[in-house]
Amino acid sequence: MVSIERTIRNKIQKVLTEGEREKSRKEVENPPRVDRMSSSGRCPRDRWAKRHGVPVDNGREFSARILSVFRLGHVIEDEVVSLLELAGYKVTDAQREVGEGEWIGHIDGIIEWSPFEGLAGTHRSLLEVKSCNAKRFAELIETGYEKWSPNYASQIQAYMGFLDEIDDAIVFVYNKDASEFHVERIAFDAAHFDRLRRDSLLVTASETVPDRPERATSQSCKFCRWCDRAKWCWDPSTGVFFDEIESRMYRPSEISKLLGVPQQSVYKCIKSGQIKALKLGGRFFIPPREVKRLGAGERKPEWED
Question: Taking the chain, what is the end-to-end CA distance rounded to the nearest angstrom?
Answer without folding.
Answer: 49
